Amino acid sequence: MEGSAGSARVSASSQRDWGAAADAERFGKPERGWRLRLYTVIFEADTRAGKSFDLLLLACILLSVVVVILDSVDSISRDHAALFEALEWMFTALFSVEYAARLACVRQPRRYATSFFGVVDLLAVLPSYLILFLPGAHALLDVRILRLLRIFRVLKLAAYVGEYRALGIALAASRRKILIFLSVVLMITLLMGTLLYVVEGPERGYTSIPLSVYWAIVTMTTVGYGDITPQTDLGRLIAAVMMLLGWGILAVPTGIVSAEMTARRFAQAAPTTRTCHECLSEGHEAQAQFCKDCGAKLPPYQRD
């Protein structure tokens, strides 16, 4: 019994592990030398140097994104174009050195380069070099904001990361139900859009079935841009039905995911052989205090 409880605790802790231990196992932590010291600073936030490095990196990411945003405003960019260009190349050089250092201090650089954060790190510097050949690539610099996901590691928000992973697992488990739901919504919008095309016609703005389907999607999601609206009584009746239908449809995905998360939450609690002394029912959880059948107080759980 104690062994199963211990394995459950290990499993729970492994699900919450988003940081240094997972990186060390996947990318290969060096055993000695300058690579180990560099790895400790870059990948581990437990030391003072590691925390300072991550906080400095996050500050540079934020500042670089602010520079990109301000540079997109014509009135500001005209007056400070040279400053923005100098800052952008400074950030690019800094991120390039950081990316190269990450590849140099791990034993499996290819694994890091093809990981999510490795790709993001590459995209953080690649657009600046593409500017030399493709001037329109400047807008790609906003991808650096994705690197702010590392704030989870710096602030040790293990609980929030754990819930994020739980949500991802629930979405993955519910994907078939969600896909079926979306297919039903697609059929409804296709039928309703085609019906509005027949009822209203091109002379009232519904010039094609794709445009009518667009109206159906906008109406069902209760967005209501108002660029095209039905003008006949029958068309307005159909629109009203779709609006009311939209209220109910929007709640379906939330219910699917919530039910999956609730089911997984209860499934994680391993049943035991605890027996109620009043009704003799078995299978109570280790942390339960009262019987799930009669409500009587349970005796303390005894582990072998």
List keywords for this structure.
about 300 residues, single chain, 13 helices, mainly alpha, disordered N terminus, about 65% helix, two-stranded antiparallel sheet
**Number of H- or I-type helical stretches:** 13
What is the mean predicted local confidence, pLDDT?
76
Give the strand order of the largest sheet, numbering strands 1, 2, ... along the chain. Answer: 1-2
Largest sheet geometry: 2 strands, antiparallel
In percent, how much strand structure appears in the residues?
A: under 5%
Fraction of helical residues: 55-70%
* Helix-strand category: mainly alpha
Beta-strand segment tally: 2
Structure, described:
It is a single chain. By secondary structure, the chain is mostly helical. Helix content is 67%, strand content 3%. The radius of gyration is 28 Å and the shape is flat. The model is unreliable at 1-18 and 146-160 (pLDDT under 50).
Short description:
Helix content is 67%, strand content 3%. The chain contains 13 helices and 2 strands, in the order αααααααααααααββ. Helix 3 crosses helix 4, helix 4 runs antiparallel to helix 6 and helix 10 packs across helix 13.
